[in-house]
Amino acid sequence: MQLTRRMESDENLVDGQWRKIVPNLAHCLRRRLNSCDCRLCVDGCLFRALSVVTGGVELDCGECTLCGRCAAICPAGVFTFAGCDIEQQLLDWSVDENPLVSCYCGNRPGGRYGVDETGLPCLGALSPEAVVFLFLKKGALISYDFTGCSCCINQRPVTRFFRALENTAKLLGPHIGARFTVITDEKQLSDEIARGRRSFLRSLGRDVVRLMKKERHTTCRNHDEGRRLPAKTRLLRDALLSAAVEKKKELTAKCLPTITVEKWCTLCPRCTGMCPTGAVRLVKDEHKKKLMVDPYLCTSCFLCEKFCPENAIIITPAQLLTG
What residues does the 4Fe-4S ferredoxin-type domain cover (predicted)? Predict the structure, then answer.
């Protein structure tokens, strides 16, 4: 079986320019802290398109297949797709009655559905946080279209995503009834095609969501000037905060990291200055200073843990990320 190379496919042309992954090294943890040895994206790339360089990482576009796995696993949100806003696409799907999660190979303008639909460059770009967001926002059935994946060069990263999808459903299922359908056969798409023809109804909801997103961006950034929350962390945070009260405790226990501050903490401000999201703060009341932590803002980047001279802060990653 011949595998198609995604970088050279027509669906990756946007206004005559090749779609590509764009790394913003200003956000890279290795640049924020010289001693940081994070290499999640490098080790996670199945095509060896990423390598460690001084002050960050380097992407070899000739080897990149646009699977988006780097974007899914990077805790700092370094990687984005030119011409594709993954966060906006997830918000669009969140207002669909029965969302069909697909990639450009099968879901492109004038393509399989005969309507102007959108999708992702690859399902491998979906993070566990994104999966949780869709599960929490959509009580209805979610369909994932894998019909073109068996002949795609990205079948390995997509397989990794599928395993993560199953694990997340098992993890959250007892609390929210998380369920999904995997579509691997063209014949299974008949219902989704019919839904696609009614897509103009969805556009009304999407316009509302875009307005909500604009307002959220305006208010969310106020939590701490100069701090930046990656899109996948922001989506997870918003979904968990809007979850039913009776389910929130169990969901946060499985989806959020644990930040432990040991009693020998000297309350120096190092960890607060190093944290890129504002998850760790030093606050002062009338009587004393204290270290405040917010797991909703924590990305498990471990910078605070690495930078603490007293080894007084410990990050335990969420069960969602560790399986």
Answer: 55-84, 255-285, 289-318
Please count the helices (runs of H) and the strands (runs of E) in the chain. 13, 13
CATH of domain 256-323: 3.30.70.20
User: Can you tell me the distance from the alpha carbon of 236 to that of 252, in angstroms, rounded to the nearest whole number?
Assistant: 10
Residue pair 157/69 in contact (Cβ under 8 Å)? The answer is yes
8-state DSSP, 112:
T
0.85 exceeded by pTM: no
- CA–CA distance from 151 to each of 1, 122, 154, 313 (Å)? 7, 13, 8, 46
Which is more confidently placed, 149 or 323? 149
For residue 71, the SS3 value is: helix
CB 279, CB 245: distance < 8 Å:
no
Residue 11 has pLDDT above 80, yes or no: no
Residue 133 in tokens: 């967001």
Cα separation of 2 and 155, whole Å?
12
Distance CA 48, CA 302 (A): 24
Torsion from C-alpha of 144, 106, 62, 156, nearest 10 degrees? 40
Q: How far apart are CA 152 and CA 141, in angstroms?
A: 26
Q: Under 8 Å CB-to-CB from 82, ≥6 apart: which residues?
A: 14, 17, 19, 20, 21, 22
Annotated domain spans of the chain: 6-217, 256-323
